[in-house]
Amino acid sequence: MAATTTPGVDVAKTGISPKFATAYHVSDWLQYSPSQLELVIRLGERRVYVMNNARVVTSYPIAIGRNGWETPIGHYQVIQMIEDPTWEHPLNGDIIPPGRDNPLGSHWIGFWTDGTNYIGFHGTPNEETVGQAVSHGCVRMFNRDVLALFNKVQLGTPVIVEP
Predict the structure, then answer these.
(1) Cα–Cα distance, 56 to 62 (Å, whole number)
(2) Which residues pair with 74 in a beta bridge?
(3) What does each of the 163 residues of the chain score in pLDDT, given as a tens digit?
(4) Do residues 62 and 159 lie in contact, with contact meaning Cβ atoms separated by under 8 Å?
(5) Active-site residue 122, yes or no?
(6) CB of 39 closer than 8 Å to CB of 128
(7) CATH code, 49
(8) What phi-psi label fits residue 145: left (phi over 0), alpha (psi between -120 and 50 degrees) or beta?
(9) Distance from C-alpha of 74 to C-alpha of 101, rounded to nearest angstrom
(10) Which of 75, 89, 107, 122 is catalytic?
């Protein structure tokens, strides 16, 4: 699979910086096509379901947005896939390079943006937070689970966020 730098992506409050990012493009097919695979996030269950032709392939526990920073409900699609992301602190601008202390973990799968802020799936160095409403809107996962998810999806994969 060919990797290229993400063109035209601004630094987001989530800290996804294009100068540090390697993104995979829609033409880089993985195991499923977007028409066969979709991700269904059930906020109340704090789980994401990987669906293939309306059947559950697998599911993973997640952390979701806390009060005031809720994970947005709606229909989206995967718009970014980044290995070893760099994070920029949304309040003070500190840069956290890839590594074990990076709040995004080892992989980022973005599915929502307002042009300034981004929301997506990512790992975490604080795995005890998975299952809680603690994020700034993102979907935190165990690092092993976000890696598995990263290897199943591609740009364009539908993401449905339900209450």
Answers:
(1) 16
(2) 161
(3) 333 333 333 333 444 443 333 333 333 334 455 558 999 999 999 999 999 988 999 999 999 999 999 999 999 999 999 999 998 887 788 999 999 889 999 999 999 998 888 999 999 999 999 999 999 999 999 999 999 999 999 999 999 999 9
(4) no
(5) yes
(6) no
(7) 2.40.440.10
(8) alpha
(9) 31
(10) 122
Longest dimension (CA), the chain: 43
Tell me the residue range of the domain where 104 lies: 3-162
Copy the structure tokens of residue 75.
Answer: 């229909």
Query: Is 107 among the catalytic positions?
Result: no
Per-residue confidence (pLDDT) for residue 35, from 0 to 100: 55
pLDDT for residue 117:
83
pTM of the complete model: 0.79
Number of domains in the chain: 1
124 φψ region: left (φ > 0), alpha (ψ -120 to 50), beta (else): beta
Tokens 């526990």 found at: 61
